[in-house]
Structure formats: C-alpha cells, structure tokens
Amino acid sequence: MCKFLSLFLIICCYWSCQVQQIGISQKAISSEELLNWKTGATIYTKIKNPSFEDSPAAHSTTPKGWIICNFNAEESPPDIHKSLTGFFDIKHLATEGDQFLGLVARDNGTKEHVGQALPKKMVEGKNYAFSVDLAHSKRLRSLTRKTRKHVLFDKPLILKIWGGRNVCSWKQLLFVSEPVNHTDWKTYLVEFKAERPFDTITFQVVFDEADHDNFYNGNILIDNVSPIYRTKKRTQ
C-alpha cells in the first residue's frame, strides 16, 4: 500500500509540474496585462508573416512563410480570410493587417495546423513569451466529407502550440488554450521555458475532449502573432 501511495504521489507531482510548465488551459489576458509582461522584455526573434497576409486571400491555401506537414490529400489546407469578406460565411475583422488564418477540425478526426522555421533557435533553459489573438466563428459553413453535405463548423476547439526541430517533429508542447468559444478577438499569452533547443513552431487545433465524446466540426481564427520575447521568468 505504501509503495502504491508513493508511486501515486510521484505521478501526481510529475503531471502537476508538466501542467505548470506548459501552461495548460491558458486564458485570454487584458491589454494591461499584455503591456506589463512586455515591460523589461527584449525581442529575441520575429515570426515570419505573423498576421497571415497573402495576395489575394484564398481558401485552402497555406499562408506565405508557413508550411504544413503530412498533408491529407482528401482534405483541404487551412484558409486565409480577408476582413469582413472571409470564406465560408465568416465575417470577422482582422486585428492586424487585413487578413487572418482559419484552422478547422472535422467530424472524421482530421485536424489542421501550420508551422514555420524560426530565424533563431530557442536556447535550452531560457524563458520566452509571445502573444497571439484568437477567436471563434459561429457562422463557418463548409462541406464535410463524412456526410457529403454543407454543415456548420461552429463548435469550439483548443489551440496547441508546439516547438520542434522541424514542422513535422513536435518535441515540446508550449501552450494549450482553453476551448476558444468567444467570437470576439482576445489576446493569449504564450509563456514557456525551452526544455531543449528548437527552431520551429507549430500551431495545431484539437478537439475539446472534455465536452465531446466524438469527433466534430469546429474552428479557431488566428491573427497578430507577436515577436518572441526573451523573459526573465513566467508571469502566469
């Protein structure tokens, strides 16, 4: 019994540390909180095309500067939406520039992602942070290959952000959002300590398994990824 309790405590401690480290269920922050964490922080490197601008905006298109891995030929790539004239009935304004990214997950279990190689490698043991704007659309309507019908992709998803050595190798989970169910744009702070050197970053949407037993159709909108800052310590 004592051995069982000891093992249980070790496992609980391990997962507690993991949750604290990657920032599970990170929530949106206020403009004041955003300003506070930038105070004293220095820009370490910048994201290429952080507001997903392309010319012209287009559905089923990977934005310039971003790539995808393991493309499923039966499904389409992500979508680049334009302010107020987005595809699939989306009517959002971009928070930066004139365009933003849409990622979906589907009722057949497929999930979209985008990633890119960073100009500078993250250094093991150092603390970093950046921000990203997220929203959700209740209007997105598209074809589902499961039923061959146009349906709403209106359920909330969760955003995971990964660090790795290439876009197809996701080594460290940096961030897990709360289920993004708000239609207005909100800013999320991504804070992490590099467990090992890495030089790629990937944004992936996943299902909210806590509220759904099966795969479903949902979406997340993404815009305005800030530069990555070197920070002294976590603020959350």
Write structural notes for this entry.
It is built from 2 helices and 15 strands. With 236 residues, it is mainly beta. The protein has a single domain, classed as Galactose-binding domain-like (Jelly Rolls). A hairpin with a 4-residue loop joins strand 7 and strand 8. The two termini are 36 Å apart. The N terminus is likely disordered.
Quick one: CATH superfamily? Galactose-binding domain-like
Total individual domains: 1
Integer average pLDDT: 84
Shape summary: globular
Using only CA atoms, what is the Rg? 18 Å
- Number of H- or I-type helical stretches: 2
Alpha-beta content class: mainly beta
What is the second-level CATH architecture?
A: Sandwich
Task: List strands and helices in order, with pairings.
Blueprint lengths: L1 H21 L5 E2 L1 H8 L3 E4 L33 E4 L16 E7 L7 E10 L4 E9 L5 E4 L4 E4 L2 E2 L1 E9 L2 E8 L9 E8 L4 E9 L11 E6 L4 E4 L5
Parallel strand pairs: 9-14
Antiparallel strand pairs: 1-12, 2-15, 3-4, 4-14, 5-13, 6-12, 6-14, 6-15, 7-8, 10-11, 10-13
